[in-house]
Amino acid sequence: MSDHLEGVGALIYARSTNRYLFLLRTKSKHAGSWGIAGGKVEPNETIIQGLVREIREEVGMDFSAKKFIPLETFTSDNRKFVYYTFLVDCTNEFVPELNDEHRGYCWVEINDHPRP
């Protein structure tokens, strides 16, 4: 068992439009803010397995056959939380099947990303 929590996030990019997917949160202390698909890695998962599961749960897409490009690793000051962010590319934009954690979405160019 690890002595820290791990989280993952997916910045999903559509090559055909050069736009990225952002989700509008409904739950947690971040309700009403925009973010990317992601969440906690379960104890029995690898980081990539957790990433694939979170994407499937939050947007309804199976990206298990994709390559994931590491963008950033955040480690909290006390080292008890580590968050891995990956770029996930797909050919075209899609309409996400949102779960109850989100109430909206948008595809935007990275410089136009929505603000909380």
Shape: globular
Termini gap: 35 Å
Average pLDDT works out at: 93
Helix amount: 10-25%
Low-confidence stretches: none
Number of strands: 7
Oligomeric description of these chains: single chain
Largest pleated sheet: 7 strands, mixed
Contiguous helical run count: 1
Computed CA radius of gyration, to the nearest angstrom: 14 Å
Approximate strand percentage: 35-45%
Q: Could you state the order of secondary-structure elements as H and E? A: EEEEHEEE
Question: What class would the helix/strand composition place it in?
Answer: mainly beta
Task: Report what the structure shows.
It is a single chain. The N and C termini lie far apart (35 Å). It is globular, with a radius of gyration of 14 Å. The protein is mainly beta and 116 residues long. The chain contains 1 helix and 7 strands; from the N terminus they run E-E-E-E-H-E-E-E. Helix content is 11%, strand content 41%. Strands 1, 2, 3, 4, 5, 6 and 7 form a 7-stranded mixed beta sheet that branches.
